[in-house]
Design brief:
Elements lengths: L3 E5 L4 H12 L3 E6 L10 E5 L5 H8 L4 E4 L9 H22 L4 E4 L25
Parallel strand pairs: 1-2, 1-4, 2-3, 4-5
GO molecular function, one term: protein-containing complex binding
Organism: Escherichia coli
InterPro entries: ComplexI_NDUFA9_subunit, Epimerase_deHydtase, NAD(P)-bd_dom_sf
Amino acid sequence: MNQTVAVTGATGFIGKYIIDNLLARGFHVRALTRTARAHVNDNLTWVRGSLEDTHSLSELVAGASAVVHCAGQVRGHKEEIFTRCNVDGSLRLMQAAKESGFCQRFLFISSLAARHPENSPGTQIPNTSPNNG
């Protein structure tokens, strides 16, 4: 199989399983990472970058027939950081996938905790939150 799948959140809990599963099925995987990674498999290419870096996102999705997006902030950050990553970063990735001209499928995996910081475990909800009461 010569299909390439781009993956974000590749070093996270779910992302590691996604990559292992794709590699076991013969896919080529291009995975986004914030830090340099060792070469471990001929079918796995690490792309250094972030959801804020449009150049790295373009490199990530170039030639990929599918994108699996499971990266995001889920705890310990202010709402503007959640928005910058979980909304703006996701939109940048979608735009890069669209502009690549190759992407036929885009799978967005998220959780309620990625919606707002007040939904994260251990975070105190301020009285001013519109979700409070």
